[in-house]
Amino acid sequence: MAVYALPLFAYVLGGLLASVAAQSEYGQCGGIGWTGGITCPTGWVCTDLNPYYSQCLQDTSSGTTTAAPTSTSAPSSTSTSATSTLTGIAASAPTIGPSHDVGKLPALGWNSWNAYGCNINETKVLNAANQFISLGLADAGYEYINIDDCWPLTTRDASTGRIVPDPSKFPNGISGVAEKVHALGFKFGIYSDAGTATCAGFPGSLGNEELDAATFAEWGVDYLKYDNCNVPGNWSDAGNPPGGDWYNSNSAIRYRQMTAAMNETGRPFHFSLCIWGNANVWDWGARVGHSWRMSGDSSASWSYITSIITTNVQHLDSIDFYSHNDMDMMEIGNGALTIQEQRTHFAAWVFLKSPILLGTDLSLLNSTQLDIITNPELLAFHQDATIGTPAAPFTPTAGATTPSPPEFYAGTSSKGTHVFVINTNSTALTKTFDFANVPGLGSGSFVVHDMWTGKDLGTFTTSYSTTVDTHDTAALFIKPA
Ligand SMILES: *[C@@H]1O[C@H](CO)[C@@H](O)[C@H](O)[C@H]1NC(C)=O
Ligand SMILES: *[C@@H]1O[C@H](CO)[C@@H](O)[C@H](O)[C@H]1NC(C)=O
Ligand SMILES: *[C@@H]1O[C@H](CO)[C@@H](O)[C@H](O)[C@H]1NC(C)=O
Ligand SMILES: *[C@@H]1O[C@H](CO)[C@@H](O)[C@H](O)[C@H]1NC(C)=O
Ligand SMILES: *[C@@H]1O[C@H](CO)[C@@H](O)[C@H](O)[C@H]1NC(C)=O
Fold it and tell me: In which band, very low, low, confident or very high, does the pLDDT at 26 lie, cut at 50, 70 and 90?
């Protein structure tokens, strides 16, 4: 695993001078196999991102937000004029953007991590691809079959320096899997890390970007998820970046190096920045990749679903074609989410245009779950080729207060206006909105249509009321009567 910059924080505690070895900001502070320190600097909290990696992240619970990832960065116009005055690595870092031959719409696919963690192999990946066909997911538009962490051996090839697929997991190599995935009609994704090692301790690509991008291109890879573990101290961001623009932060530059390396291969890659919402990524992500994670790893819990919606609604301006806030992989089929919570999970990822990467053993999904993830009207909103913006919160009736996360969202598709209503309460409630309050509708009579069932619910004037089950989401298409 990586070597960390030595922590340099001293604390005065209760009148005693004590020197506490704290990890650096964004440094690792725990996880399977971790033997280093577990203390974070003041104002930073050791946060479990997955079983293999805990990291010092800023404590946002106290309401104190300091500089780094939560502050508003300088407008990009400043950055352009500041470019000439940049020094060090920021002055010479590549500025090439991601391919626009791919990644216009949020990705639809499957990823191995939530289902299998490190326990992956060729059979499981190809099963998922075959299930895309047998379960109707291919027809619904699911496209990517992606392998997450733990696919290679722990050391690179001694003579070529290349990452080596683990032959016990992938006896035909990664190229063998990619070839079979392509033959079934799908695109193929892989995983690496913008640090010295992945979160589970396999080789990372920092400093090997060109070799690894060339290797992935040669293998037929179409999509790269690029994680953020094991970042050497001199590559993390301790304070504000040069010129106040997070595009020039060390974090962004680690990702920019891979964008440039992928460009050099001549193969279009869909680039997914797994940067956990650090470094104001929503401000610059579209200049570097197609989607970017807004948080640490998801969990199969209602609290994760509500917290990531709360985070994402603060950054909806970043979402458009080729530019997607990633709410992380799906948990439908995992844990103890109720079917209502699974519907909200899917609907929120749809109306906020997050990538939707299924994360379960697809053979275990029942027909209700399959109906959710293949719902044609919700998927049409998500994959709309003419409107790239997401739904956004609105005030349903005069004077209504907006809870956190908001419960009422309105959005536009090529068909017209849609309203999504989440019930975050722990009891079923009647939810009401006035048509005049829905952006773009105005007053009058409207036919309200249920996107889940594909049926019209009737014609209504002034307002619409419906009972929404606890933790469920109503998905409505509203057309003039
Ligand atoms: C590489 O970048 C150039 C310049 O932006 C662009 O025209 C080209 O399509 C890119 N190629 C790939 C494979 O991303
Ligand atoms: C993958 O793992 C499954 C379950 O452990 C096993 O049945 C299968 O043979 C394995 N396939 C490969 C290629 O190792
Ligand atoms: C960190 O140190 C490595 C090794 O000296 C160097 O290659 C790299 O450019 C440094 N990173 C930054 C952001 O200065
Ligand atoms: C599928 O599982 C969910 C729980 O995840 C359950 O609520 C639903 O009734 C099940 N559907 C069928 C058809 O068994
Ligand atoms: C949620 O339910 C509780 C108890 O049933 C109630 O006191 C509360 O007012 C409800 N919240 C909203 C926003 O309706």
Answer: low
Residue pair 154/111 in contact by the 8 Å Cβ criterion? no
Catalytic residue list contains 434: no
**Phi, psi (5° rounding) for residue 58?**
-65, 140
Q: Are 258 and 224 in contact (CB under 8 A)?
A: yes
For residue 32, what pLDDT band results from cuts at 50, 70 and 90? confident
The alpha-helical segments, DSSP class H, found in 135-166 are: 137-140
d(CA 350, CA 353): 5
Two tokens at 25? 């900001």
CB 394 within 8 A of CB 411: no
Task: Tell whether ligand 1 has an atom less than 6 A from the beta carbon of residue 96.
Answer: yes
Q: Which residue, 102, 94, 96, is CA-closest to 268?
A: 102
127-131's contacts with Cβ under 8 Å and 24+ in sequence apart are 127/362, 127/363, 128/362, 129/180, 129/181, 129/184, 129/186, 130/184, 131/362, 131/363
Choosing from 95, 96, 102, 222 the residue with most ligand 1 atoms within 8 A of its CB, the one to mutate for a pocket test is: 96
Q: How far apart are CA 232 and CA 237, in angstroms?
A: 10
CA distance 193 to 212: 11
Give the pLDDT confidence of 279-322 residue by residue, as tens digits. 999 999 999 999 999 999 999 999 999 999 999 999 999 999 99
The rounded Å distance from CA 307 to ligand 5 centre is: 19
Catalytic residue, from 148, 149, 212, 227: name it. Answer: 227
Task: Tell me which residue has its CA closest to atom 6 in ligand 3.
Answer: 234
Q: Residue 425 CA: which ligand 5 atom is closest? A: 1
Does ligand 1 lie within 6 Å of residue 272's CB atom?
A: no
Residue 227 catalytic? yes
Helices (H), 334-474: 339-351, 367-373, 376-382
Residues in the chain: 481
Would the pLDDT of 236 be above 60?
Answer: yes
Query: What token pair was written down for 415?
Result: 């068909």
pLDDT of 457 higher than 80: yes
Region 393-415 average pLDDT: 97
| DSSP label at residue 211 | H
pLDDT digits (tens, 9 = 90+) for 239-295: 889 889 999 999 999 999 999 999 999 999 999 999 999 999 999 999 999 999 999
* Rounded distance from Cα 181 to ligand 4 centre (Å): 30
Model confidence, pTM: 0.88
